[in-house]
3-methyl-2-oxobutanoate hydroxymethyltransferase
Amino acid sequence: MTTAASPLYGGNSNRRVTVRDIAQARERGERWPMLTAYDALTARVFDEAGIPVLLVGDSAAMVVYGYESTVPVTVDELLPLTAAVARSTRRALVVADLPFASYQGSSQQALDTAARFMQEGGAQAVKLEGGRRVAHQVEALVSAGIPVMGHVGLTPQSVNTLGGYRVQGRGDARERLLADAKELEHAGAFSVVLECVPAELASQVTEQLSVPTIGIGAGDGTDAQVLVWQDMAGLSPTTASFVKTYANLADTLTQAARSFADEVVAGDFPDSEHSFT
């Protein structure tokens, strides 16, 4: 007797989501959400909300460490964030970004870095940027039993060669992007992120791949959507045009901080209710 597969979003399974679950969702035509996470408390909230995949993104460079781009963040800076997210979640598939210069050099370098994120960080998969140029690294990781999420289009680690944060895949670059996505699938990637890609092209890539696609600024034709959680929740001071905010945490936190400060200055906090006798 077989049972119906649990949906990725909001499913009631107590086990970890796996790459097989991701593939089955694609077969069912099921769309699903992915968010970034960088600490225990927010990761637990997203896990309990039913978000099936959490990405410990190298976007932590900006939203956690205050860098201007993803380029400076290191393996040693991302590892403790990954471990915190993995320890505080029960169901979500935790994917760790491999940071700039930690995998591009060779397949062995990629394997060494990914192994640290799996062993020390507790991740269940890793993500790396690039198409054909990293296909050998993807093959090596998959052969070693490490699930790989690919990433094409706008690849922030290459922002210095791309000439800024610009839409990718227009004009002559269209076929190259499609070929890169296919290369990742052929190398064994279980999914591919499409970032800042024209919606029509993202839909075409999705149709031609057999693995799920994850869009960010790529229209509604992909299998899944991902956002940086601080952008989604209105905490980031500036966001890209494709970002939709679902809350205004910046205002909420500002008001909470001011209320606390006002009560301290006025002598209203702590009161008897919040003091020991």
In short: Residues 11 and 276 are 44 Å apart (CA to CA). The longest strand covers residues 148-153. Residues 248-276 form one domain. The mean pLDDT is 95.
